[in-house]
Amino acid sequence: MPKIKMPKSSPSIDMTPMVDLAFLLVTFFMLAASFRSSEPVQVTTPSSVSDKIIPSNLIMVTVDKGGRVFFNMSNAEARKEMLTNMSGKYQIGFNKEQMEEFGFMESFGCTMKELPGYISLSSEERGRARTLGIPYDSTNNELKDWINFGNLAALNTGKTLFEEAKLKGDNPDANDFKPKFILRVDSQTLYVNAQKVIDVFRDLNLNNLNFVTSMEMPPKN
Predict the structure, then answer these.
(1) To 5 degrees, how large is the angle CA 41–CA 44–CA 49?
(2) Where are the domains of the chain?
(3) What residues in the chain have per-residue pLDDT under 50?
C-alpha cells in the first residue's frame, strides 16, 4: 500500500506579541530615563594609556584651557548638603526649587554671589552663559570651600549608603562608598593653573587625586 505524503508547509510565527513587547520596552525607557544636562564647558584632556574607570561617587574639578575652574559632584543628596553649608558660610540664600535643581545640575563655574541666578537659568541658558569660573586664588578661594564641604557631605552620604547596603544583606566594601576626587584639565591650559588646583587639594590633605585623560592605545613592541 503506498504511503500517504503529507503536504509540506512552512512554519509561521506570530510576531504580534514580540512587537507589543518592543513598544512596551521603548515606552518604559522613555518614561524612566532622565536626560543629562549639557556641560557648561568642554575640555580636551591629554592622552594616556591608563584604563582605570571613573568611580561613581566622585567629586570632579575641571580646568578649561583659559584657566577657569568648574566643580561637579555625582550624588544629589550630598550636593544639597554641600550647598546648605556653603550658603551658611557665605550668607547667600537659596529657595527650595533652587536646592532641588542644584542637586541634579551638571558642573558649574561661577562665584557664590552669581550662583542663585545661574541655577535659575535653563539648561540651554547655562550652556551659553559666559561665567568666569570658581575663584581659587589666595585672596578668594571659594574652590577650597566647595571641595571641603563636598568631601564632608559625600562622606556622610557614603556612610548612609554603606549602612543601607549592609541592612540588605550585602557584603559591601566601605572604601567603595568613600568619595573619589577627579581632576580634569584641558591639555592647552597653563601648568600653573593646574598646580594651583592641586595645591588646594593638598591644603585640605586630600591626596588621593585622580587625573582624567583620554584613552590612547599603548605602542606595539
Answers:
(1) 140
(2) 47-213
(3) 34-36, 45-55, 215-221
